[in-house]
Amino acid sequence: MKQKKLLSTAVAVTLVGSVVAGCGSNNNDAAESTSTPGAAAKVQEIKLNLSAEPEALDLSKSTTVVAASVLNAITDGLYRVDKEGKLQMGVAKDLPKISEDGLTYTIDLNPDAKWSDGKAVTAQDFVYSLQRTANPETKAQYSFLMEWLENGSEIVAGTATPDQLGAKALSDTQLEIKLVSPKGFFTEMLAFPTFFPQREDIVSQYGNKFAADADKVIGNGPFKLTTWNHEQNLTLEKNESYWDAANVKLNKINISIVKDAGTALNLYETKELDYTSISGDNIALYKDKPDLVTKPELTNSYIQYQTKDNPVFSNAKIRQALNMAIDKQGLVDVVLKNGSVPATGLVPNGTKDGNGEEFRKVVGDILPAYDVAKAKALLEEGMKEAGLTSIPKFKLTSDDTSAAKKSLEYVLSQWKTNLGVEAEAEPLPFAARVEKMKSRNFDAVIALWGADYNDPMTFLDLWMKDSSMNYPNYDSEAYTNNVKAAQKELDPAKRSQLLVDAEKQLIEDLPVGPLYFRSAKFLIRPGIENLILAPSGFEWDAKWAEVK
């Protein structure tokens, strides 16, 4: 590529594998040596856990890591990220040919790429997918990514038609994508689900029920979805039509949906699961054992405050007071205990700034520290400005997993103890919490966001005034202008400064109150190799996984 990359493909990736048999935990059946002469071959099946039910497995409408992990297993994009964090070929035969001005990408496709029903994957499948996501009738939350493409903004706004999008099938096996402005990380983004192909005939056949059940989903990836018992389990089986099936070792992946961390741990210990997240005091049980793996993450947690038509949260000082009254060090030390650290801004540690530096180090620690006295003063000032003599009781929404409920209880306790503010806990199933956010029908909600790519923009473009993901209805012209200017700025140093200014504005207004930068820990059965835990985009990638 001609221009400086904003995202290095050599990002840190946790790879589960090369574990010595018999070490640490005594529940290591999967790790028995296969080097013994005459040893039976291992059954190539693994049992994973998801802490929530995926929403419909629709590439245009999906927004969660839970769904993205399944979609990445059953669908191949143009590229896939390997254990070294480098791009490997998916449907593409080679890396894109990029024009001198950085605007036109021409990609040749592998003619052997097929859908699970044997039909060839074509360039038009990618064009259709991008057009469908850009089409306002689809109501895709990630439609803003299509604004990077020629005419994308106009299509999303409804002033142009989807067929005018800067994506064209030059032939069945050659795809052309035209951008509005150069983006050094765009090739890496082609490994993200929003840029995966879709079958127009299948989407049309099932209409509103498309991707809602196993028999209404089709993929072209290393696995195919064969069963989906909602809120219970999913089964993925090897896709024999996959172009690279020879390098897919697993024959089956059984996925359970277990929300309660204690239950999931019990299932792991009784070998009903080979993989699950672990947090809190349970982490100490596996200290120094090979099962315990830390996943590097670019993920933040925060509280979104509904700023529109809300007598409490329309006032910035009240929002600031609530955030300042939470002891975030206590949250990570007492509740999470997983290596997470208190937030010092919105953009998490490890995020690059696109100018050769780490964004957090460039901006510094800009989130006001925990200070009960100052929080009380801010609350009093904010209430006067809002004409309130007391804070009306409101709901704080979160997921209903055991870990999420503990965080919810902690925050509510901090507000009551430090400010005398009482709020009602509203733990909801994952899908219900996401839908509540999307409908913008909430008072305050605890949420997390994992990076789609390693750049501050993936955290900052959410809160622009016209963003489809601006659930708090944050309305700052200064903030939106800075982010939009950064989207068009070609000079890396100037672009970085615009993003710095945007984050500072956001922290000053605080429509979202950062809590912590997450570090996640997982248990993985020793003997399972090459199960990749990615720092962004997906929770896991099992294409190259195998049982040794």
UniProtKB/TrEMBL annotation:
GO molecular function, one term: peptide transmembrane transporter activity
Keywords: Peptide transport, Protein transport, Signal, Transport
Record keyword Zinc present: no
One record GO biological process: peptide transport
Pfam families registered for this protein in UniProt: SBP_bac_5
Residue stretches making up the Solute-binding protein family domain: 87-469
Superkingdom in the source lineage: Bacteria
Protein name as catalogued: Peptide ABC transporter substrate-binding protein
